[in-house]
Each structure stands twice: as C-alpha cells, then as structure tokens.
Amino acid sequence: MKKLNLNLKDEVYDSLDRDYKNFNRLSLKCDSGFVSPSFESFMLAKLSDNTTFLTEAAVQHLMLSGQYAWAKRALDKDFPDVVAILISQASNYGFHIAVRHDWSVDELTAASKAWATSIVKQAKGDESQIDVLAAQIKSAAISIAKAEEALKTPAWRLSRSWAQQLHDAKIAVEHARGSVAREKLGSLRTLLTLGIAYGTVKEKDEKEILDRLRTRKPYLFEEEADGFLGRALAWYRSVFA
Hints:
By secondary structure, the chain is mainly α. Helices cover 71% and strands 2% of the residues. The longest helix has 22 residues, at 69-90.
C-alpha cells in the first residue's frame, strides 16, 4: 500500500477539519446510527473526488439496516404524532370518527385495535405502533348520536322534533279524558317505540312512563268493555278519572 504524506498550512488544515466535523454532524442528524469515517478516510474521499464520503463501513451499515435507517426512525417518531394531530383537529373542521351508540367499552376497544392493526399492516409499518394508534382512535371516537348533534344532521333534527313530540304526548295523555286520552296513549306508544329504535329511549324508560300512566289512569290500559252497560261504566270512569 502506498503512503502519502501531506504538509498543509494551518488555515487549510483547519478548513478541512471544519468540513469533516460538519459532514459528521449533518450525517448524524439525519441518521443517529451513521458510522462516521475517520479523518483519513474523509481526506481520501476528498482526494478521490468522491463527494458522498461514504466509507466501506458506512455502506455496510446502510446495507445491513435493510432500509434507510434515518427515514424509518423519522416515520416511527412522527407517524403517531401526525395521526394524533389529524384526529384531534378533525372535529374543528366538521369531521368525526363515529361509533355505534350501543357499543360497550370493550367493544370499542376491540374495534379500535382491529382497525389500527389493519392500517399498520397494510402500510407495512412497525407493529409496535398498533397499540398507540388504537388508543388514539378509541380516545377520539364519539357516539354516532353525538356526531349527529355536532353536525346537525337531518337525523338529529328529527330526533329533536321527536323529543318535543314525546314531551307533548305525555302531557296530553295526562290531561285528556275518554276516547281522546286513548288516542293520545296510542301516539305516545308509537313515539316511545321510535325512541327505542333510534336509541334515545331505553326499554326500562318506556316501562316507567307507561307504569306511571297505568297508576294514574288504569282504565286506559283495560280492554274495551262489551255491551251497553260496560261501555257506559267505562265512559263514566274516563270522565271522572
């Protein structure tokens, strides 16, 4: 192997030394796993007009990593942050991640994990990010009912109208008498059925409302009496109940 000795002025050597340190600093900033070349290797690259300054050890490290390590680390660090920002800011611009109104906490957790797993695998990402992404999805998700309220959807407007009609129907049944009260009870039952279907009324709430009315006006829940006398007695009870 040939050996070459150089005699350099101090200012020339200082300039080369600054270049060498800047090269290492910038390379390590891009890739913390970068293998820094020696000053002699850096000088050899300069003399060989090799502007990339990649030593054999640096090339071997790059090949063994299987991918550009600096890019992988950047994505591993930034990906969760980007997703968190996306989800947290979505509602400010009218977007929501909505879930079924009847899901339990366990069902929401399982669905979030399944979705996060699918995203990471399809993107061929690091599976260690699955739990992070699943937690962000779970924390950002809201009930479909809340999403509809925030977005003022037609369904939400209909539910608002329904709630007012239900309130009016309960008052109407309490104040009406006779056949009118029976008609109002029929309307009330229909509204309660719609509420259960939409998810704004639970079956126990329906039972409580009807039981309260049954206690105050039991005749409304009796079968229609047969015959003139039976109808007369039913009318009498409805008038004075």
